[in-house]
Amino acid sequence: MASVQKHERSKYKRASTVSTVDSEIDWEDSQHEGVKEDSFIDFFRKSNGPPQTVLLCLLLALSLGSTIGVLPAVVTDRYARIRHGYNGDEDCSFYDVDDRPMECTNGSNDAQNASAVASFVSNMLTFTTSSLMGSISDERGRKGILLLGQFLSLLGPLCLVLLQLFDTMSPNWYYACSACTGFVNWIAIALSTLSDIVPPKWRAASFGLLLAGFSCGFAFSPILALTLSHLGVSILSFSMLGGGFFFTLFCLPETLTPEIAQRAARDRNSIIVHNEPTCGKVKRRMMRPLRELSILNRNQLFRLLATLSFFSGIVSSADQSLLIYYLEDRLRFNDKDVSLLFVILGSLGILVQGVFLRPLNELMGEKSLLIFAFSCQTIVNLVYGFATVKAAVFMAVGLGSFGGLAFPTISAMKSYNVEEHEQGRIQGALYSVSSLASAVGPVSLRFIYYQTKGSKFPGPGSMFVFAAFLELIASLIACALPKDQTDSRKKLHDNPTLSTDEPSAMSYGSFSDSSDENDV
């Protein structure tokens, strides 16, 4: 009986290999016939789904960015009052650092600790569930998972509003809701939505536009807070996310076709054993998140890309978390300097992701572009580590915008190396790796900081020198990527190896390329 099952599964694999190539040809011909001569912007503008998705990301960035300055002030004051007995008439944010009461200092420490715990929990949830949610979206559609992710994102801003309306409410409610957003990373689903519509040759550019929407939101969101109170900004943030939720509900189309959904369901059902005992069903369902992540181990290309995602995630998350504190402490950055830093980040992020990414990708190809991005990040972190003047940091931040090309490029490479019914699964798995890196990145660099802060050279900047070393390793790994699988300028049907080394039908439950018996 076992030999018969194995024979049937081998037949299914051979059939799946043929259908993979045929489906790629059919998909490209049927979905994009008549638009091959259009420019990318024309195609993107006329398409139904991608423009709405970018708009949603813009709303999310505006909402989150507008409360960046509000959240620390609100939760610090609340912790100071309910935990440390502060009863002053002025808010804790009223005081300068040197004049701040000890209760406010303790409240600030509590807020930072709670934020770190919430971030860690959220990243661990994302690592566990992101690929699973992506796989579910491959079967049941993108829109429902997007709505669930946006609903969870609404809870944090709602708690921030309630904190300012009820004096006895604990900020722990906010951080608990913030951690829950890790259950569904709807950005990964948004990338899958773009992959459903956009041809492979334009996916890197479309992913770049998605990130450009984020950059635009974060660049202009501080303007929203200039004329509003803390409560007003919080209400505005919640309202924008609420508007995005209803926009998705009523205006965003379902981009997953029924045919692709059926193929995804057929692949998952292929691992189900007839008359499976209850304990087997429980075990299979509990192990499903790991089975979904096993796509990263499908072939050498995916293993290399997962490693690159991990290195990139460690450095980018550490830079985002620690850079401002480091600059304020070492180079005496003030509020004006920090504001200028964010303006440079946002403006150049829009320009690089939205304008330069597509021509650079067409000129260099994904592999060379990835090497270029990691090389830029290597130089940037070296400058952070050795900088003694503010001007050097501002120039490094400008160059770092090109380092941001790494993530959409990696996402695009993976998207056109899997079948269309695996887009959600691969993007979710990619975000799982990034979330794990985001959890360990700041901790690892802080460890380097504490071990070397007393040394004369490079001193506290050694954590960024270490980050540059990681980016250098990533650049070398990128050189090892196979050229024929990392260049979307070649048509998929001219090179069938652009699919995968293993057909997807039996990839569930397989942690190695050749293991057939581990499917169940």
Automatic annotation (TrEMBL):
Broad class of where this protein is predominantly found: membrane
One annotated Gene Ontology cellular component of this protein: membrane
Membrane recorded as keyword: yes
MF-aspect GO terms: transmembrane transporter activity
Mode of membrane association: Multi-pass membrane protein
Keyword line: Membrane, Transmembrane, Transmembrane helix
Biased composition (Polar residues): 496-513
Name the UniProt record assigns to this protein: Major facilitator superfamily (MFS) profile domain-containing protein
Organism: Ditylum brightwellii
UniProt lineage: Eukaryota, Sar, Stramenopiles, Ochrophyta, Bacillariophyta
